Structure formats: structure tokens, C-alpha cells
Amino acid sequence: MAEAKQMVDALVRDRQGSTIAATAALGGVALIVGLALKALPGRAPASDATPSAGHASPAAAPRTPFDHSAVDEDEARMMLRAMVAATMADGLMDAAERERLYGALAAAKIGAAGRAWLDKELAEPVDVDELAAGVSTPEQAARIYAAARLAIEPDTLQERQFLKMLADALDVPAEAVARFDQELAG
């Protein structure tokens, strides 16, 4: 599925009852990256192509908190899987919620393959251990957690337990979890 980033963007924009949806105009993936960087202060964005000292390219633009160029389709798919798992943490997905998700996908012009993928994930959400197994850096862990946290308003015990288990499995520091909650409150 090559539409993972588009799907993340659509689902973030569709988040109801929040000012987050309004700020997602820059893109859901970029918003998640920015939230993760704010939650992990003092960490520079990881770059696979960091020039060695004295060999910096003058043409290289500085990275911003919302620079999501390092997020590939595989990581966007992990974000989506985390979002779906968080949504399904309480075991409830009523018809209105399902139609809202499908409406967001339709608005983003996600085709039948994307909808079929979402149906499969809703039927069998990934568990926290499987999500954690695909994570290789603290920054990536923060982005995956941010996606899951952004997907829900943790108003049930099951949702809060899911987020705690996910944070533990990803080794997201308690301070970062508190920052996510503070940013996404209201």
C-alpha cells in the first residue's frame, strides 16, 4: 500500500473535537513529527545523511520541527497501524465512527486498496509488541506513540491502558508522554 502518508494525513485532519484538525493543514505526518520532537526536547532530528564536521553542504537547508522527509511509507504504515490499534483499544467501533473513517479516506481520494487495508487492520489490530518490534530509534518510537495518541481521546480505561502499554513497549519516557498529553489536551 503506497498511500500510507495520505491516509495518516486524512485521519489526522478528520480528528473531531480538536484544534489539531485545523493545524493539520501542513499534513498529518508533519504534525506527528512536530509533536514527537516537542515531546523529546534536546534531540535533534535524526538524519541518515549527516555530513561530517567541516564537510557541511552549504545548500543543505536546516531541518524544522515539522520536517517529515525522513518518514518513509513503511513508518507511515506503522503510524497508521498504531492509530487503528489505539482506536480499537476499547473494542468499540460503531457504524458512525467507521463511516467517519471511510469519509476521511474518500476525501483524501484513497482508493479501494486503502479501504481494504483499513478493514483488515480494524478486524485484526496490531498489538503493542509488534509495533515496538519495528521501531529502531527513540525519535521513531515517539512518532509512533504520537500517532496513536493523536488518534484517540483516551476517555476509557482500555484506551489509557493501551497507551501506557505502548509507551512502555516503545520506551517512550514518562516526561514525553506527559508532554503529548499536554499538547493534545482539549
Automatic annotation (TrEMBL):
InterPro entries: TerB-like, YebE. Residues 44-67 are annotated as: Disordered. Residues 49-62 have a biased composition (Low complexity). The chain crosses the membrane at residues 20-37. Keywords: Membrane, Transmembrane, Transmembrane helix. CDD domains: terB_like_YebE. This is DUF533 domain-containing protein. It comes from Methylobacterium longum.
